[in-house]
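Would you mind writing out the residues of a protein together with its fold in token form for me to study?
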Amino acid sequence: MEQFISSFKAIAPSIPYIVNGIWVTLGIALGAAIIGFVLGTLLSLCKISNIKLLNGFARGYTSIFRGTPLIMQLALAYLAIPQLIGLNDVDPTTCAIITFGLNSGAYMSEIIRSGINAVDKGQFEAAGALGVGYWSMMKDIILPQAIKNILPAMMNEFITLTKDSAIVSTIAVTDMMRRSQIVSAQYYTYFPPMFVAFIMYYLVVLLLTFIGGRIERRLSRSDQG
């Protein structure tokens, strides 16, 4: 027990360094979520389109990104593709945000598509009867209703991005996971730094889950009202 306590005391000066990595983690998750939402919206519209080329592209894109490991996609984006095209200076954080965003877009497209399909068909028919154009109908009538219905699922996707962002440590991004590894190597002890990062990830996910629950309850009350 004394050794356990002393090991935590030894790394105490480095705990703020590990904890501050949460801003890197959340920054990557937020950037990826924005890319994923925009891309997912476009892909979902392609999936419900009658244009076979767009429909096939969107479904193929989703199949590839959902059917391969995220860590493999990250390795391809950071190591393989730059070498293939002769790009030597790749910023790991930017690469992580883009890769996570492209991956999230595949999952978001399915979430948004299900939200669009859940909108009452009468909304489509009414918009068509009034002569509202397809894109105007989607932008002003259908998508706002769909997004309201899928906000909890979108929050869950953001939580997943936050947890999965730990793998960016494999390409030297100094997020919480990477910082705990650096401190572990510095002090030749692994449990205390890893445990600090573990607790921080858990607290952040608890907070995000709480926020998601509040959003879901508020939406339920507004629907009942």
Notes: The chain has ten helices and no strands.
